[in-house]
Amino acid sequence: MLGALVCAAGPNARAESSPRKPVVLSGSAMNVGGLLTTSAEGALIELPSRARLRVAPNSSLRVFPVPQLLPLAPGARTWTWSFALQSGRVDVELPKAGRNAVLANMGKLSAIVTGGRAAFRVDGSEATTANIEGAVRSLVNEHWQTIPLGWTATLSKDDPNALAKPGLPAPILSSAQRMWLAANDTVGMHGFRWTRVPGAHGYELRVRRLADGKVLDQRRTENLEWNTPLTPVEPGKYAVALRSIDARGMESGWSSESELRVIGVLLPPGAYSTEQAIYLGVGQQVQFTNTAGLEMTYLGAGRYFPAAQSTGLYRGQKTVIGFRLPGTLDTAIARLEPRGIYADVQIGPQSAVWPRDPISIDIQLKSESGGEVPAFVQAVPTVTVGVEPVDVNFEQEGNTLHALVQPSTKPGPWILRVDVADQYGGPLGHDFLEIAAQPRKLAPPVQIIKPESAPATPPGRAVPVRDPAREPPVASRN
Predict the structure, then answer these.
(1) Average pLDDT, stretch 332-338?
(2) For residue 42, how far is the Cα from the chain centroid?
(3) How far apart are CA 334 and CA 307, in angstroms?
(4) pLDDT tens digit string along 191-213?
(5) CB-based contacts of 449, cutoff 8 Å, min separation 6
(6) Is the dihedral of CA 93, 241, 230, 214 positive or negative?
(7) Which of 42, 47, 53, 449 could bond 57 through an S-S bridge, CB–CB 3.0 to 4.6 Å?
(8) Which of 265, 273, 282 is nearest to 332 (CA)?
(9) Whether 85 and 147 share a structural domain
(10) Which of 308, 372, 370 is CA-nearest to residue 334?
(11) Are 313 and 338 in contact (CB under 8 A)?
């Protein structure tokens, strides 16, 4: 009866004409005489019942343009959309709300999906139905059977009745890592390992966000581990599940989910982070988010205690912090290190005197580790003479600043000081120079002019007695 309904439904079984028809949401397919053949990218077809057909690449099928009312359950009949698969694979995703179904015809094997997800595959003379996550019944030789969750039914020469059989079991997650630190807003989770499943030709890993259930990543591999970072995710709670893939490409049911945790980092101004460490300035603290219910410890503390929301460098030195769920061994490591950026300040000449010499100031940002200085760090110098600030025009080239300070017109001696901070006010370095005043030119010394020699006193004449009071005054330039 069902075969007759599929092939040539009469007026009592055929649905009334509907304004909506199946539409292709993505991908492409070539239509030749009503037979759709997908390209190498496959196609996604949505039915008016909101059911979706994910057609694998290079598959051929016919999608019937109108639904049928079929007596699939007691009571009212069920609106059923149908397709006939000739080769390839189709995955059906049907919302469980409403009284709708999807009928798949694969020659002598037919199947009805009334909710959830099922997969159908035709390869030569073999036809397979798999209940991935739904409600599925199959029909062979007028015999109905319910396919349990995770089971498959394959029509072949060895099994002409396509009896349902258990599919492969899901692998078990064996890796201990369940927690990551998103030092740069997001992190790509990796390092997953699982047990081998006999008969499996591949495995699939799925990560979804627990807050809304959205699947964020889904990957396939033939290995027993996944070490490549997945799609980067923000701090939050996630869940990972695994399933096996058999030789026909049919998936098992998903394993039970394991919770994953991503810890966030909020940096103070001027701090920065890399994949290796979080770099803090003197006295700064970093805040960790999504740590509710976690424990933390410091390297060398010897014990765990409730996680604090913020912490800094222990005694200004490199600090290693570990986070974990109570009672577990998996630990997320946060490495805190001093920022180690400083300003090398050079002022000269050292023997400068004013007003003779202009003063040269050279500032270069450096890293104590010898690495690159982060591009966001800016040097902000402040120049003072005595206690008064001086407006200096600095020229910048890369991490180097240069300027000249002209002599002061105020009385000296002077002390010129240069203080360098970053754009957030964090100190980077300083230097100063004592400047002497140039000595003044001395006046010429006083020249004493001796009087010309007097003629000798004739013999017998008395020498006159000198009376200074009667002598005229002597003029002097000094």
Answers:
(1) 93
(2) 31
(3) 13
(4) 999 999 999 999 999 999 999 99
(5) none
(6) positive
(7) 42
(8) 265
(9) yes
(10) 308
(11) yes
**DSSP codes of every residue in 440-466:** PPPPPPPPPPPPPPPPPPPTTPPPPPP
- Using left for φ > 0, alpha for ψ between -120 and 50, and beta otherwise, residue 294 falls in beta
Q: Which domain holds residue 220?
A: 179-261
CA distances from 369 to 337, 338, 425 (A): 11, 10, 22
Asked if 201 and 247 touch (Cβ cutoff 8 Å), the reply is: yes
Can you give 46-60 as a three-state secondary structure string?
Answer: ECCCCCEEEECCCCE
Query: Average pLDDT of the chain?
Result: 88
Nearest to 291 by CA among 318, 275, 310: 310
> Residue 245: what pLDDT?
95
What CATH number does the domain containing 406 carry? 2.60.40.1930
pLDDT value at residue 184? 86
Q: Determine whether 163 is exposed, middle or buried from the number of CB atoms within 10 Å of its CB (0-12, 13-18, 19+).
A: middle
Q: Whole-angstrom Cα distance, residue 228 to residue 205?
A: 12
**Residue 316 DSSP label:** T
Dihedral (Cα; 122, 153, 115, 30), 10-degree rounding:
0
Question: Is 251 within the bounds of a domain?
Answer: yes
Residue 18: pLDDT over 50: no
Domain finish residue from 228, 246, 261:
261
**The pLDDT value given to residue 15:** 40
Residue 421 lies in a domain: yes
At 368-419, the pLDDT tens digits run: 988 889 889 999 999 999 999 999 999 999 999 999 999 998 888 999 999 9
Tokens standing for 321? 């912090």
What is the predicted pLDDT for the residue at 6?
Answer: 40
Can you give the pLDDT at residue 175? Answer: 87
Write down the pLDDT at residue 453: 58
Q: What is the C-alpha to C-alpha distance for residues 263 and 387, in angstroms, rounded to an integer? A: 48
Residue with tokens 């039914």: 153
> CA–CA distance from 326 to each of 272, 290, 362 (Å)?
29, 15, 54
> 141 pLDDT band (50/70/90 cuts)?
confident
